[in-house]
Amino acid sequence: MRHTSNAFQMSAKTTRIIATVLLVIPIIVLSIGGVMKILGAEPEMVMQFLTKAGFGPYITLLGLTELTIAGLLIYPKTNKTGFLLATSYFAGALCLEISGGQPTASVVFLVMLWVSMFLRKREVFV
Fold it and tell me: pTM of the full predicted structure?
C-alpha cells in the first residue's frame, strides 16, 4: 500500500503569493538603497565602509545600478536578467561583508531571490 501525503503541496495561488513576497523584499531593499545612495542619505557607517572598500567615488553609480536591477526584477520580460544581476550584486555585497567583518545580511536576500525564482520559473535552474 502506497501512501502519498499532500501535507507539503501548495496551491498555485499560495506558491505565487510566496514567490511574490520573497521577490518584493529584495526589490524594496535595492530600491531604498539605490535612492539613498543617489541622494547621499546612506547611514554614515555604510558610507565609511563603502569608502574604505574603495567604492567612495562610485556610490552614486552603485545607487543607479541598484535601481536598474530592481526595475529589471519588476518587469516580467526582464526578471530573469534582473535575477542574474541581483544575484551577482548581492553576492558581491556578501563578499564585502565577509571581508570587512560585517554581518552577512546579503545572504538573506540571496536566499529570498533564489527561492522566489525557483517557485516562479523553475526552468531557470535547468
Answer: 0.89
The cell for 65 is 545600478
CA distances for 30 relative to 7, 89, 96, 126, angstroms: 35, 10, 16, 27
Tell me: the pLDDT tens digits for 24-55?
Answer: 999 999 999 999 999 999 999 999 999 999 99
Contact 69, 92 (CB under 8 A): no
Query: 3 — phi, psi (to 5°)?
Result: -115, 125
Give the cell for residue 57: 567615488
Rounded CA separation 102/43 (Å)? 15
What are φ and ψ of residue 110, in 5° steps?
-60, -45
In whole angstroms, give the CA distance from residue 47 to residue 40: 9
